[in-house]
Amino acid sequence: MADGFPVHRGDIFHAINRLRKLKLNKRALEVMEWVIRERPYRPKELDYSYLLEFTTKLHGISRGEKLFGCVPQEFQNELLYNNLVIACLDKGSIKLSLEYMKKMRGLRYPISHLVYNHLIILHSSTGRRKTIPKILSQMKADKVVRHVSTYNILMKIEANEHNIEGLVKVFNDMKRVEVEPNEISFCILATAHAVARLYTAAEAYIEAVERAMTGNNWSTLDVLLILYGYLGKEKELKRTWGTIQEVTHVRSKSYMLAIEAHGRIGQLSQAEELWTEMKSIKGLQSTEQFNSMISIYCKHGLINKATAIFREMKVHGCKPNSITFRHLALGCLKAGLVEESLKTLDMGMNLTTSNKVRYSTPWLETTFSMIEIFAEKGDVKNAEKLFEELNKASYTRYTFVYNSLIKAYVKAKIYDPNLLKRMILGGARPDSETRKKFYLLHFYPNNIVDNNVALGKIPLQYFSLLIVQIVPARTHDCKAGCEGLFCHHGISCIHKCKVLLRLLSPSFSSTVLVKFSPEGKHECPKPGVKAHEWWKTAEDPHQSTFGDKED
């Protein structure tokens, strides 16, 4: 303006959006105050909404409400109301925001989907999640159409809970109502499946991410670095990093993700080159930068190199945090230094750690790697101690996590009849590996053979019997006329042995057992024979009564 050039509304909006992304709220407020004061153009509702947003963020809700009353009446419309509600939600004032939403309904102003997005996020914690269906019902009542961002938030909540079934259900609902998923949607799906070690599905979603990408979005490229690291795709990882380097400003976060991705696929030399490059270009200013390299060395058991980075961290004035000690504890375990590992683990536990860190994927995966080592050693005590951390974060929904814990019991030759109950009630589905381990625990509690011995084909009914023991009892009438037959929700009798694997519902009996023949017929056990002791009455407990083929 001093040089005689006009300032257009578009220039201001572009500057405000950039300042918001950089979280420079104070500077953004100064810009909007200047616009209202100097009037380079006639302010409209969007200008006042920006002014209201940043005033509330910096000076609180009371100042925001006072400013709202000072805005010209013609601009006190749906946009300003929606921004006021969002500002209240940003401050965590749910009750006040609901009052303004009620006022908007009275004025017949439409409520934005962004308001409901904020409400869902505020209720995404474990204790508040039951409220989300009510929020979605109110959203429908207000005739607010769910935006793709709404579905992305719902999918992210399920992914954070490690609930793959819930995640896929939300995605299918999204497709059913013909809402087009974007690259963020596919990134959430791909990452969740990669963390769950469902690599085939993850690869399919990665291809969808590549197709849905709009330009060189650095956040999407960062996710691709992580995903190609999980899948071990060296060429694609190199290509993605090359694309990131073409961006004008490469963030330190991108360097850290690239280092971890190369380390995950075993390219330590490439990871070290990126580490050196980051040191020279970006400098070492945060603990997270050092943690990225420490994690790589510790995953490969290079504890001496990890210790050198740890010392360098202190030289640069960065304090180690709990994740630093967790990585070092893993490195000690990989190197066979069990005592040092336990001491390092205790040092990390003594530090204050937020739930955000404890529930983060790097923390959980590092903890699980330690459980695997303890399981191999048959150290049930330490495996259970770390397993409890994963259980609090719902990471134990994955079958492979429980299988590692069961392996600890197998190696220690300890039989715990409640293991399968814990597994199923914890949300994990037993698989073939679980069957093998429970076969060993159930039939050889005092003489467990080595896990590497070829077990051959384990009879399906033995594994089913274990499931039968853990479900609550219920009396029911059988249409076939025999007492104690398992019925599916009391509707029809089960005549196929494969259905026994579905005995996870409280509606099934746990006190009796039905024995099936290859022809599909059933017979009730003799009175007095308990389900968990039936195998003792068999002539040969290693011979399947279902024939050679398992149905």
Structure description:
The strands form two sheets. A two-stranded antiparallel ribbon has the order 1-2. The protein has a two-stranded antiparallel ribbon with strand order 3-4. It has a domain at 457-537. The chain is 60% helix and 1% strand. The chain is an all-alpha fold. Residues 445-551 have low confidence and may be disordered. The termini are far apart.
Summarize this entry quickly:
This protein has 551 residues and is mainly alpha-helical. It has helices at 9-21, 25-38, 45-59, 61-70, 78-90, 94-106, 113-122, 132-141, 148-160, 164-176, 183-195, 199-212, 218-231, 234-245, 252-264, 268-281, 287-299, 303-315, 322-334, 338-349, 355-358, 361-377, 380-392, 399-412, 419-425, 432-443, 460-470; strands at 487-488, 492-493, 515-516, 522-523. The chain has a domain at 457-537.
Secondary-structure topology with pairs:
Elements: H1 9-21, H2 25-38, H3 45-59, H4 61-70, H5 78-90, H6 94-106, H7 113-122, H8 132-141, H9 148-160, H10 164-176, H11 183-195, H12 199-212, H13 218-231, H14 234-245, H15 252-264, H16 268-281, H17 287-299, H18 303-315, H19 322-334, H20 338-349, H21 355-358, H22 361-377, H23 380-392, H24 399-412, H25 419-425, H26 432-443, H27 460-470, E1 487-488, E2 492-493, E3 515-516, E4 522-523
Antiparallel strand pairs: 1-2, 3-4
Helix pairs in contact: 1-2, 2-3, 3-4, 3-5, 4-5, 5-6, 5-7, 7-8, 7-9, 9-10, 9-11, 10-11, 11-12, 11-13, 12-13, 13-14, 13-15, 14-15, 15-16, 15-17, 17-18, 17-19, 18-19, 19-20, 19-22, 22-23, 22-24, 23-24, 24-26, 26-27
